[in-house]
Specification:
- With 123 residues, the protein is mainly beta.
- Helix content is 0%, strand content 48%.
- It has strands spanning 5-7, 10-13, 18-23, 32-39, 46-51, 58-60, 68-73, 78-83, 92-100, 112-113, 117-122.
- Strands 2, 4, 5, 6, 9, 10 and 11 form a seven-stranded mixed β-sheet that branches. A four-stranded antiparallel β-sheet has the order 1-3-8-7, with no helix packed on it.
- The radius of gyration is 13 Å and the shape is globular.
- The relative contact order is 0.32.
Length: 123
């Protein structure tokens, strides 16, 4: 079924930008709400952003509003996270998650998870 695969992580200086991608091979990708979560060292996994099936509704964590943008291309079965003005506090493993139909901000809402991609922001 749905198996998200993240890419695009890396090392970037504070103030820089990075674009994460999450690809799937799921035929019904367009029926899944998608989300990004992250987990920093010593912290629990936290919500970052989510996007509805058609891309018309998005929700962001307060910590990333105005800096991060989530988007999706259903024709490519891919969701993106554009991260701008990165801060050292953004350093974390970023995970892509999927669930049928309804977007959400809780990790327990999501059925499928990628393996994560490391984002490191240096000061």
């Amino acid at each position: 079924q749905v198996q998200p695969v993240e890419s695009g992580g890396g090392l970037v200086q504070a103030g820089g930008s990075l674009r994460l991608s999450c690809a799937t091979s799921q035929r019904t990708f367009s029926s899944y709400a998608m989300a990004w979560f992250r987990q920093a060292p010593g912290k629990e996994r936290e919500f970052v952003a989510t996007i509805s099936t058609g891309g018309g509704n998005t929700i962001y964590a307060d910590s990333v509003k105005g800096r991060f943008t989530i988007s999706r291309d259903n024709a490519k079965n891919t969701v993106y996270l554009q991260m701008n003005r990165l801060k050292p506090e953004d350093t974390a493993v970023y995970y892509c998650a999927a669930r049928p139909y309804f977007l959400g901000t809780r990790s327990d809402d999501y059925n499928y998870w990628g393996q994560g991609t490391q984002v490191t922001v240096s000061s």
